[in-house]
Amino acid sequence: MNRVLVLGGGQLGLMMAEAAARLGLVVDRYDPERALLLPGTSDLAVPITWEECLERYPVVTVEREAFPDSGLSARLAASDRCVARGALAVIPDRYTQKSMLDELGIATAPWRNLDRVEDLADAAAEFGGVVVKARSGGYDGRGTWIVGDGGDLSAVPAEELAGRAIVEKKIPFRRELSIVGARNPAGETLFYPLTRNWHVDGILRLSLAPANASAALQPEAENILRRIMEKLDYAGVMAVEFFEEDGRLLVNEIAPRVHNSGHWTHEGADWSQFDLHVHALAGVPLHSLNVHGPSAMVNLIGTPFDQAWLQHPGVVHWYGKSVRPGRKVGHANLVAPTLEGLRKGLNAWADVLPEGFEAILDSELALD
Question: Catalytic activity annotated for this protein (predicted)?
């Protein structure tokens, strides 16, 4: 295999194409909204037909979970060439995703389906604080409503969501963690270390890797991700986000693709998650990973490019998107010999990090 088609025209597919070019392979991107092909890393879009796709691309992968209901992208996502086909049938709907995890005996926040308006009050009576999530389409905090124990349920549009949402128990987690790993068609797997994540208003703002004091949790996290990939017969990189509660891991979300919390691997490991994704799809034997040291990823959210960033510690990755509030337009990666050194480097990025990031670093440093 030397040519892959990725469904999606965003920055994740572009970074896959960049990784493939370094490996002597080709990743082309199909933009579903424009119904046009973006060859390699080019921005010059061209038309393509179903027959041409079958001729050129033995493997199809994805950079996102949702596609139009009809058209070439929908047809390709459902084809037997799409290595994420099984995952796309399960993961995008939180009901089927949670049901699969229950079937596998993998721990998640207790939950129930929001079939009727009355189910919301029943869930709150059972769980206390609740999190209501639209079954599909939610992203970066959208489609999510959080109500604390005894809180006002009227803020949740229950009538609108009935039959289209789930209700979870609000977990008093110690921290949010994620694991990114890969599986190739031969069933070989490889994993990065657990990553500590900090979200604000549902949007990832900072990742620290490897997560401190996580060695005891790493085998459990790897086993969970391995079982999910095997269940879905998945090839490529996949990510699982967890809540850490009382020394155990609860699955929060699954992403059948390269993931924002794995962006630190650009500079923090010998092979980035994009390299690893292409390796897995090409059937390359998955070898051990070398992690360079404590790493941080700072998401650049809704801000114009600032030339001063180039004088800060770290490496800037800019996506070339138009800027609007809440939009991920780039990220910066930092690597240091120690977490304390990483903290010093992050101080230079205080203007793009929300207030309170120092407390996250303090809490991570305090873990043994």
Answer: 5-amino-1-(5-phospho-beta-D-ribosyl)imidazole + hydrogencarbonate + ATP = 5-carboxyamino-1-(5-phospho-D-ribosyl)imidazole + ADP + phosphate + 2 H(+)
